[in-house]
Structure formats: structure tokens, C-alpha cells
Amino acid sequence: MDTTRKLMQFYFIANAETATHYHQNPEMFYVLRGNLDIKIDDKTYKMQSGDIVLINANKRHTVIGNEELLGARFEIDFHLLAEYMGSMQLLFWCNTVADCNHAYSNLRRLLDRILTRYFEKDDKSALYLNALYFETLYVLTSNFLVKADDIRLNLEDSQDRLRIRQIQNYVQANYQSQISLNDLADKLYLSNAYLSKYIKKNLGMTFMEYLNNVRLFHAVDELMYSDKNLTHIAYDNGFPTSASFTKTFREVYKDSPSEYRKKMQEENVMQQKEIKLQEEEENRILEYLKFREKKESPQSTKEKEYVTDAKKIKGTYTDFSKAISIGDGYILLQSEAQNQVEKLQKQTGIKYARIWNILSKEHCFSEKDGYNFRKLDQVLDFLLDHHLKPYLELGSKPSLFMYTPERSINIEETKTSVFDFATFSEIIQEVCVHLVNRYGVDELETWYFEYWNDPSLHSFEPDGEYYQRFDLLYQTMKRYSEEISVGGAGFILGYESMACKNIFEIWREREIHPDFLSFCSFQYIALIEEGERIGKKSIDSEYISNQMQIMKLIMQEAKFEIPELHIDEWNFTISNRNILNDSCEQGAYILKNCIDMNGQVDIMAYWHALDLYSDYYDTDTVLNGDSGLISRDGICKPSFYAFQFINRLCSKVLGKYENAIVTTNGRNHFVIACHNYKSLSSRYVFTDEDEIQLEDIEQYVEDIEPIKLNFTIQNIQNGKYLVKTYRVNRASGSVQDLWKNLDYSKGLMRDEVEYLKSSAIPSIEMKTIEVENGELCLTNDLEMQEIRLIDIQYQYNV
User: H helices then E strands: how many in the chain?
Assistant: First the structure.
């Protein structure tokens, strides 16, 4: 048996027959032509040309290919990869059949280049091939890796994460010795009984099962890549006898160690045969690779040409992005918050303000005194007086301030208790009557009423109380007008997507359906592994668009159609202490997504409006990494100006591109919004959000290259045009970079805060261009994470 270790290797496959098996190493299938069905556990994925599916280590699976199949199988050495990653607990979620991610295009290009090297026989092929293997694994680990010992969004707090890591590190360091649960309990100063239950709860297996799992991992590695006899393998990996090794091995792999080794030897021989292709098959592969190269050949990332015709309207830019989530509605009783929201509305054109906890016991209800909606009226009156329509979340939504997904503080803990059904029914009746009598039915028809999917209400069950409560709210509001919009339920894209199919099927069978479905988007992905939900950050630059596409397919499969789709909370992070929120990166992220998502959903309400939301004991600096558009001192961030730029777009779209949108009013006025958004890097994936340092901020993006955008608008009226260009970049409009010039000092004096407030504004450049041939050409050089608004106005003569 060839025992040479290779980080990655590939084999061509053709006319695959049915085979059920498993491997110590992860393997990735890539279909070039034909079809391939892969069954993993109880789920079958039907692969077609261009599809990629990665199967994790020791996952039993069945592979069925048709007669036209031509593809490749890539095998990854798990042991070597684990050494590079510093963890033995590695899982991947890489599946183009069930997932959308911008990184799949990069992965396909790399796999194509690897396959191309097979046909290029030269002295440097092996060296270049290894470089491609490393680059491929970099893309895989950056975008599709879930470290199973980093159980984000699953463990209760950071203490749990630390303890799990201590358990794993101890076992990894001592698995070759005769260790016991008692040894580990003594080391962690815990009782045997407590530690046993703790391990079972958080690792899903007993201590001995986990220990044997680690021992087997190393033993199987030696079976495959060494000539050691079975007794030595057993003793060297901590098994007390060869018999216990055989027994444990057979329980997991269904074969004895010797039988498994023999199968692997036979499979290795078969793999060597797989790569011998017929001339016809080689030609088919080369034909495919040339097709992919032509189709996916990327335009230069440094210069892009955008040509539009002023006479050809290609769509409409709607008001879908002119909504904002504020949080707890009663923050609007503070004059400081009112002043900032008023500024936000005037300068960004925000139309809807989403608020929650409006039915809290503290502000409008007590069992002793009954109902008093005076404070609620003050909040709603303020919104209406400032041309903002209420978007009311009527559940008991917690107001959290997040350091990272697994570390949060419930600031408003007293306000989030869920009313029992009788109390909820009574207060809904009371508040609906009050709103109708005070504001009128016509006004309420322009609002949105949402009911959140509180986990305690069990929406995943057919008889879950959530549906009873939603039906009550729906029927109460519809009693006054069928035109009042009532919806829910705030599902988390990427994290709850797969579970939504069951909910949609339940909802479909009920008599009452929502007027709109609401979702949250915070760029986290959940992988369900053996019943446990494991979360990870996503750096997919097309995350919102891709996840909404997945959700629409889920709705289609469930045959559940709803008139409107809302994303009522969205950001790239849920953290209130992520310094990227304060940076130019956030402005570019917002502008990019507002351009990309136009026409895909009906409303997007950014999370969130004001840094005052998470004002806390640690907010002792001018910026604190919260995602508000305005700092607690009233300073506008790049994210604020992104919405300001969006607000100035015209309604008619001439062209929508990767980095820009070109609009017009149809009367010689053109407005362009553009950006140089940079995707987040792998370093961001494996760094806690609140640990990112200001001086390292450039290391959390894939590249820092500038970009040149060349715009040409054809068929316009000849004459003079005034061109105004507004820029936000690190030199203009970035309070974070201005603060850097003040040495990131704490406790700034009032005049220093005022300096930042007045200086953190976009730069403006004006010039006049003469058009003689009906064609206007503009060149714009944008630095990393820069956003621009270009306003082009025809100048009429007397």
C-alpha cells in the first residue's frame, strides 16, 4: 500500500456505479458532465454539471452516477489538514446543490486549474499542483469550514467554550495513556457525576465514547498510512488490548481493523486505475474546461467598464431600503434619540421605523392599574410628526447587547417576559382598539404589524402556541380593515433556513396566513450535525442575496406563497462591539447590498439606527463598534452616508452592475452610486468580533487594491453638464480615521467631539463637462471600501 502522505489528490470518475462507503478523509465530488446522486445519511443530493459536494470524514454515503457521468473526486488528508488548522474537530459545509455562496465560483476556478494540470506534463507541474492544492484548501477553510470545537451560537457562554476546549485539549494530549474520567475531573476541579453529564450534554457522547473516538481517529490514520501491525497500533493509541481495539473499531466501522485495511488497499489500487482515461474522455474533459474558462473568466478587478443607454430604462429603484430598525421603542422618549432620528429621516429619507417591546409592563400595562398607552402615544406621535411610518413588532423581543454571538448581555431583561395567552389576548384587544380610535383605520393601513417567532412559543410544532397568538393578532386587526398588514416571524437566514420548510408546511395548512414574511440576516450559517446545530460566520459577499434565494426555494418546495418578503434586521454581524461597524467597510457593505437587493425583497430595515441602543458601561470612547448609523455623540458614520447616497438615486434604473447603479429621472438628470467593497478574509472568520484591533483593520479583507470604474452614458442631450462627486473614504467622511488622528483618545472634550462631528462629512468635487457626440464618459478611481455618489445635471441656457 502506498503510504506517502499527500495533502490533497484527485481522481477522474466516469460511469460511477452504486457504492456505499466511508473514508477517514473528506472527499469532494465535482461533476463535469452528466449526473451524480450522492446520499449522505438520509438526504440525497442530485448533482449536475458544475456542482460540488464535499463529504466530511467518516460519513457513510452512497454514490450513484449515470452513463454520461464525467467528474472528479478530490481527497483531502484529514490528519495533515488538522495539523495545519490546529484542531482535530473539523467539519465542512460545501454543497452547491443545497447552498449558495459567492466563493463557489472561486472554488470551481481552482478545481478547473487543478484538472487542467493533468494534461500539462512539464517539470514544474507537481510544484504548481501543490500550490493549487493549498490555495483550494485556503478557499475551503475560509468559506466552508466549521470547526466543531468552536460551537458558536450553540454554547451558553464563553465559560462553556473554554471548558469544552480544556476537555478536548486534555484528551488530545493524553489519549495514548490510560486516562479516565476521574483524571479529567480532578484536573478541572469538578465532580465525576457533574463532568459526565456536562460532556454528554455538550459533546453528545460519553467521556469514554469521546476518548475512543479520538483514539480511533489516530488508529485509522496509522492503518492507512503505515505498515505497523494491529497490536502495535492498538497499544500506541491508548487501547489496553488488541481485542478492545477490534471491538471498538467494529462498533464504529462495522469491519475489523484488518478487514478495513484490506479494503483501503484494494480501493487504493482502484483509485490508480480511475485516473487512466480514454482519449474520448480526455477530449470531453478538455472541452468542458475550455467552456468553464470562457464562461467564468473574470473581468479585471482593477478596471471595469460600465456602458448605459439613456434611452433604455431597465427597471425601477424602489423605496425598499428606506426602513430602519431602532430597537426598543421607548428609547424614542429620550430627546437625544429623537434628535438623532429626526436627523436620520431628513438626510436619508427613511420612511419606516421598526420598534419593539411597545407592550411592555413597565410602560403601558400593570396588573394593578390596567392599561395606559400614554408613553406609546408619545413614541408613535413623534414618528408620525417626523414623517416616519411605524413598523411595530408586537412580541416580547429581548433587547440584547452582543459582544459576539455567544456572549451577550440582556440590558432589558425585565421587559422581555412573555405574557400568558389570556393576558396577551386582552392586551392585544386593548391596544388595537386604542390605535384605531386614536390614529384612524386609514393611517393604520400604512403601517406594518409584526409578531416575532419567540422560541418559547414553539412554532416548529403544528400545535405551537405561536400560531394561536398570531391568529389572534391577525383577526383582531383585520376586524377593522382587511388592508392592515400583519406578518411575521423574524426567521434567521442561514441559521434557521432549513427548519423553515417545516414551519411553512405547518402554516400552509392553517386557515390564516401572514400578509408578509419577515427575516433577519446577520451572516451566520448553521450546520446540523448529528442533531446538533453548529454555527459559523460567513464571508460570502453575496450572502443576503444567496440566502434569500435559498429561502424562496424552500417556500416553493413547501408550496407556501406570501405577497411580501421583508428583511427587517440586516447587517454582516450581530456584534455591538465590532469596530468594522464604524469603518468605511460598513458604508461599502450597505451600499452594495442596497444595490444588489433592489427588486428581490419588498422591505429591508437595516440593523440598526443609533449607537444609543447599546450605550453601556464600556462605552467610554467616541466609537465603540456598534452598528448604529450615528454615534452616541451624534457623529455620522460612513454607514449613514451610504443611506444618504441611496436616498438621492433617481427612480429609473439604466444599469445595475457589480460595483455600481446608474439611474435617471428621464429628464437629463443622472445619479450614479458606486463602491469598492472588499470581501472579508479568513482571518475575520476565526477572530471574535470584539477582538478586532483598529491597527489591524486592513488584515480583515481579502485585498486592499483600488479599482477604476469607467462610466459611459450614451444617447444623451449635447451641452454642458455639471458633475458633482461626493466621496466617503478613509480620508473623507470617516470618523474612525479622523479619530485615529486624535490617537484614539478616550474622554474627548466637547470641542474635540464637535470637530469630529463637523469634519466627518463626504468630500465634494464639482466640474463641468461638455458633451458633443451624445456620450458622457467619466472615470472614477475608488480606494478600498470607498463609496461615491455622482450627480450629473444638464445645464440649461437662457
Answer: 24, 34
Q: Cell 442596497 belongs to which residue?
A: 594
Residues with Cβ within 8 Å of residue 76, at least 6 apart in sequence: 7, 8, 25, 26, 27, 28, 137
Residue type, 37: D
HEC profile of 734-798: CHHHHHHCCCCCCCCCHHHHHHHHHHCCCEEEEEEEEECCCEEEEEEEECCCCEEEEEEEECCCC
Phi (first) and psi of residue 146, to 5 degrees:
-120, 115
Distance CA 673, CA 576 (A): 28
CA distance linking residue 389 with residue 443, whole number of Å: 9
Query: What's the CA gap between 89 and 651, in Å, rounded?
Result: 51
- Residue 503 is given by DSSP the state H
Cell numbers 456620450: residue: 775
Query: For residue 537, what are the β-bridge partners?
Result: 524
Query: What is the distance of C-alpha 117 from the center of its chain?
Result: 34
What pLDDT score does 149 carry? 43
Whether 304 and 711 have beta carbons less than 8 Å apart is answered as no
Task: For 767-792, write each residue's pLDDT tens digit.
Answer: 999 999 999 999 999 999 999 999 99
d(CA 560, CA 557) in angstroms, rounded, equals: 8
pLDDT digits (tens, 9 = 90+) for 584-616: 999 999 999 999 999 999 999 999 999 998 888
| Beta-bridge partner residues of 10 | 74
- DSSP notation for 233-269: HHHHTT-SSHHHHHHHHHHHHSS-HHHHHHHHHHHHH
Q: 33 CB contacts (<8 Å, ≥6 apart)?
A: 49, 68, 69, 70, 71, 284, 288
Bridge partners (DSSP) of residue 396 are none
Interior angle at CA 115, CA 112 and CA 119, nearest 5: 130
670 CB contacts (<8 Å, ≥6 apart)?
Answer: 310, 650, 654, 662, 663, 664, 713, 716, 776, 791, 792
CB 790 within 8 A of CB 725: yes
Distance CA 35, CA 46 (A): 7
On the question of a cis peptide bond just before residue 526, with omega within 30 degrees of 0, the verdict is: no
CA distances from 732 to 350, 542, 608, 707 (A): 24, 27, 23, 17
All three cell numbers of 320: 425598499
Q: What is the pTM of this model?
A: 0.85
Name residue, grid cell 449607537. Answer: 611
Q: pLDDT of 630-688, one tens digit each?
A: 999 999 999 999 999 999 999 999 999 999 999 999 999 999 999 999 999 988 988 88
pLDDT tens, position by position, 413-464 = 444 467 889 989 999 999 999 999 999 999 999 999 999 988 888 888 999 9
DSSP assignment string, 74-137: EEE-HHHHHHHHT-S-EEE--BTTT---THHHHHHHHHHHHHHHTT--STTHHHHHHHHHHHHH
C-alpha cell at 471: 391568529
Task: Give the Cα separation of 584 and 700 in Å (integer).
Answer: 13
As a whole number of angstroms, the distance between CA 539 and CA 165 comes to 25
Return the pLDDT at 470: 96
Buried b or exposed e, range 447-458, using 16+ CB within 10 angstroms: bbbbbbbbeebe
Edge-first strand listing for the sheet containing 719-728: 315-316, 652-656, 660-664, 669-675, 787-794, 719-728, 763-771
Q: Are 50 and 289 in contact (CB under 8 A)?
A: no
Cell numbers found for residue 560: 407556501
- Could you give the dihedral angle defined by the CA atoms of residues 69, 71, 74 and 75, in that order, rounded to the nearest 10 degrees? 20
How far apart (Å, rounded) are the C-alpha atoms in residues 521 and 716? 40
Cα separation, 95 vs 666, whole angstroms:
44
What pairing do the DSSP bridges indicate for beta strands 389-393 and 448-450?
parallel
- Count other Cβ atoms within 10 Å, centred on residue 129: 17
